Amino acid sequence: MSAVVLFDGMCNLCNGSVKFILKRDRDGYFSFASLQGFAGQQLLKKYGLPSDVNSFVLIENEKAYVKSSAALRVCWHLKGMWRILSIFRIIPPFIRNVFYDILAKNRYNWFGKTESCMLPSQEWKNRFLE
After folding, report:
1. How much is the pTM?
2. Could you tell me if residue 28 is left (phi over 0), alpha (psi between -120 and 50 degrees) or otherwise beta?
3. Radius of gyration of the chain measured on its C-alpha atoms
4. Which candidate, 61, 50, 55, places its Cα nearest to that of 11?
5. Residue 76 in contact with residue 61, Cβ under 8 Å?
6. What is d(CA 40, CA 32) in angstroms, rounded to the nearest whole number?
7. What's the first-to-final CA gap in the chain, in angstroms?
8. CB 96 within 8 A of CB 66
9. Which residue in 39, 74, 98, 128 could disulfide with 33, CB within 3.0 to 4.6 Å?
10. At CA 56, angle to CA 55 and CA 62, rounded to 5?
11. Which InterPro entries does the protein's record reference (predicted)?
12. Dihedral (CA of 64, 67, 71, 76) sign
């Protein structure tokens, strides 16, 4: 069983998050696709999400999770102390997502933006969908 993380490939925070996950997902549970790419757009369509979704998306067990729900589910699968963060799932999403939305709205201003999607290193290339 595996899951797919859809991320904004032009966002420095999002690219950093992908690298963070890759380093802690030694079992290769997660695959990745940029929201702007063909695979990402096809998955958004398949799960009934808008093509211009402004969120981190996790597809797991044939279900799409967005915003803080997606991020906390990812934390659950990571090695080390990161799993503890998943306890925040007890907070209702409408409360958690207030903070998520503030971060998402300001991510380009606070962390910057690239002009093109991240190219994975050779060791991680097989984890990215095209």
Report:
1. 0.89
2. left
3. 14
4. 55
5. no
6. 9
7. 20
8. no
9. 39
10. 110
11. DCC1-like, DCC_oxidoreductase
12. negative
Beta strand pairing call for 57-60 and 3-7: antiparallel
What span, in angstroms and rounded, lies between the C-alpha atoms of 74 and 80? 13
Strands of 3-7's sheet in order across: 30-34, 3-7, 57-60, 63-66
Tokens matching residue 74: 């990812």
Mind listing the pLDDT tens digit of every residue in the chain (130 residues)? 689 999 998 888 888 899 999 999 988 999 999 999 999 999 999 999 999 898 899 999 999 999 999 999 999 999 888 889 989 999 999 999 999 999 989 998 898 888 766 666 667 778 988 7
* Nearest one of 61, 16, 37, 23 to 128, comparing CA atoms: 37
So what's the pLDDT on residue 79? 81
Both structure tokens of 58? 């996790």
For residue 96, what are the CA distances in angstroms to 62, 65, 120? Answer: 23, 14, 30
Question: 3, 5, 11: which is closest to 108 by C-alpha?
Answer: 11
The alpha carbon torsion through 122, 26, 47, 49 (nearest 10 deg) reads -70
